[in-house]
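Following up on my earlier thread - several people asked me to post the actual chain instead of describing it. Fair enough. Here it is, all 452 residues.
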Amino acid sequence: VSYLGLLFYVLFTLLFVLVTGRQKSVTPLKVTPRIVRLSMLSFVLFFAASAALLFAGKFMRIQYSLIGLMPLTVPLLVLAAHYLLWPFETLNNYGYIVKARKKLRRMPKLIRIGITGSYGKTTAKNILATMLSEKYDVLYSPSSYNTPLGIAKVVNYDLKPAHQILIAEMGARRRGDIAQLAELVKPNIGMITSVGPQHLATFGSVDTVAETKYELCEGLAPGGLAVFSADNEYTTAMYARHGGEKRLAGAGSAEGVSVWYEDVSFGPAGTRFTLSCAGKTATVTAKLLGRHVPSLISLCAAVALELGVEWETIVRSVETLAPVEHRLQPIINGDVVVLDDAYNSNAAGARNALEVLAAFEGTHIIITPGLVELGEAEAEANYNLGREVYGHADYAFFVGTRAEQLKKGAIEAGMDASHITICATREEAVQQSTAVTGKKVILFENDLPDNL
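Reply from S.P.:
Thanks for posting it. Predicted structure:
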């Protein structure tokens, strides 16, 4: 008995190494200096605890058996390592932000633009950068760098004296996050693309999301310009509320809208629509897909016009826009078209993606784990998404723990149950989808996290 704990200790260690080595992460762990520090301290604590248990067991006359309890302590040890490093990490992070703030202070002529919204902000950032690059030397945060540390990294390492414009994407999970980013960047122009039920697990309500996004307007530099979407009830309410310099852009030519769009259609070639501002109109086709695309282009055109970019230049730049990776990005491989919308999702974005899916020719397939991080509203949201799937997709492969709610919604809406498959992993869903033959269009909707 005195050696039994040691036997379990060795066996479980080997089992952990084998299982972990065989696991394929959807998003591989990026080994940063912070992860290295956390891992090293966790290992030190682990071996210290192991030695302590061996030592204690010797005095308690049960020898090595006590060490069998080690697996129970591992989560606590990692948590302890996190809190032990927290003061150092906080000071280290603060140092990066202070460095970025000082650098921005030394560039008073730099035009700073902040973009936030529940969805569309990354696409809007890329659209605006394309438009402004025709006239200015533009730096914009890459990928989804939308946190204080992400933006600080861009400023510290990438911002050069030659740059004339900085575009910062601003993300949030809690109240005050946008205010913190606005304090760092001090934007001259703020753009709010949308407000919707995103990250409700941390925000609690859509009203709190709206108030958080509005922090960008409150954090503008003196005389700053706020630009709002006319296609969202929350952003139009913000436009009415804001007392400073402001613009509205979106569908139709209602009062106050400075740039608007009409006659939207889309398909494999992209999104086609009519774009207009005062006295000028052009019919354009963007390679980007989705009903949200004209709205974002209108917003960005309003900002570009304010910064002196010619109308003809804006129209020309729309035609050159490239699809954003993992955001309704079309990938064509023979008779199979993949619509990669796997980065993120919300109810409005999912409906938009399904509409795009239905516009393509072929058998329509959706692979999705559903909507996540919606707190108490998550089950209902996934049931409703399942209902939306019916009429847009011929076959559905629902992945993970939310699959039952998705399936229930789809069946109650009228979808044939034999065309719905529940899968444990994305790989299984992809494999199962190969049974559908002929010309097909597959929509990957929402990121597929490891913790399904």
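The chain has a mean pLDDT of 89. That should answer part of your original question.
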